Amino acid sequence: MFGLGAAGAAAVGAGALAANSLLDDPPVAHASSTSGPYPFYGEHQAGIVTPAQDRLHFVAFDVTTDDRAELVDLLQEWTAAAARLTQGKESGAFGAVGGAPEAAPDDTGEALGLPASGLTLTIGFGASLFDDRFGLAGRRPAALADLPKFPGEQLIPEISGGDLCVQACAHDPQVAVHAIRNLARIGFGKVSVRWSQLGFGRTSSTSRTQATPRNLMGFKDGTNNMKLEDADLLREQLWATAGDGSAWMAGGSYLVTRKIRMTIETWDRTSLAEQEQIFGRDKGAGAPLGKKAEFDPLDFGAKGPDGKPMIAADAHVRLAHPSFHGNAHLLRRGYNFVDGSDGLGRLDAGLFFIAYQRDPRRQFVPVQMSLARNDSLNEYIKHVSTGLFACPPGVRDAADYWGRTLFET
């Protein structure tokens, strides 16, 4: 789960909602360059199968109003702003300098002159939103069940959970930060920031046009990740359908976040041989142990000269592999983070894990439980933050808005 990528919904293929080929779906059309825009409108939200950008600003909000109408108004305002921002425009009609001098500007202005930079904005609804405040208690999807407590996790409540989340991904960090800043500005008095996370250096590829990146431990990350070109697999294991029990989520997906801090200094004193045994892959090429190339098939039955398995029973790649979890997968698009130091000369650094799936109960949960119990990598990492969000379907046109299917159907 931390590294090489896959978990999944073991038996969620039958009766799947028919979907268009993701190669033709506007939200995942390729931007013409790293400075160009992605379409905002479409069947699915952009920022899920969109080719992973280089930078992240992720934020979780608490809703501070108890008025359902105010919350719907905010979602409509946010949607209009997001449609503009993702196309490289300012967040409001008058922008940073076009309004009355006596009034606060419609945009904060720090992205003036910058292109769209592939910005995508993706919203999700946390389980805490489905309480008694807004009449949504009966609409909470079964797949949005609280995650169990995993062995060894050291979660910090203040940087976990949230009523709403917004994921901003872009190739320019200032563009991503500008987008989140303006959504928070628009939401003043209705929402407050609960926690946020900056990320750099994507740790997964979501398209076969992208090379596999490396995590801060130096290993290629996400080799077995689902890709946007895998249309059949995505229909089976990524996109929710009406038949899953919550019709309003059809075309949406479920997002799990985990902030995973690495004990960098200890890892850096570990031998190369041990590092490779822990991951089950060659550090240079990314090949499975015993093979030569990154994408060579894993052979869990192969043995070395000593008669022991080439890939150990507690190796990360074995425990996370789909063949041990009903041939199930996650779509991962996490990021590295470095949040300074902890005051003792140790880097506060690691992986901000992001994964989308059709049902976390059948995907993230069983794989993470296996990893938490058995993964030899656990000596060098700890999970300090968690989040689970239902990401609704895409916005179809300018008359639509984020979450309309939840509030109006």
TrEMBL record:
InterPro entries to which the protein is assigned, alphabetical: Dimeric_a/b-barrel, Dyp_perox_C, Dyp_perox_N, Dyp_peroxidase, EfeB/EfeN
Cofactor-binding details, from the entry: Binds 1 heme b (iron(II)-protoporphyrin IX) group non-covalently per subunit.
Positions of the Dyp-type peroxidase N-terminal domain: 45-200
Record's GO cellular component terms: cell envelope; cytosol
Main location: other
A GO MF term: heme binding
UniProt keyword annotations, A-Z: Heme, Iron, Metal-binding, Oxidoreductase, Peroxidase, Signal
Signal peptide: 1-18
GO biological process, one term: iron import into cell
Cofactor: heme b
Cell compartments where the protein resides: Cell envelope
EC numbers: 1.11.1.-
Stretches assigned to the Dyp-type peroxidase C-terminal domain: 212-395
Function: Involved in the recovery of exogenous heme iron. Extracts iron from heme while preserving the protoporphyrin ring intact.
Record family assignment: Belongs to the DyP-type peroxidase family.
Xref: PANTHER family: DEFERROCHELATASE (PTHR30521:SF4), DEFERROCHELATASE/PEROXIDASE (PTHR30521)
Name of protein: Deferrochelatase
Species in which this protein is naturally found: Nonomuraea cypriaca
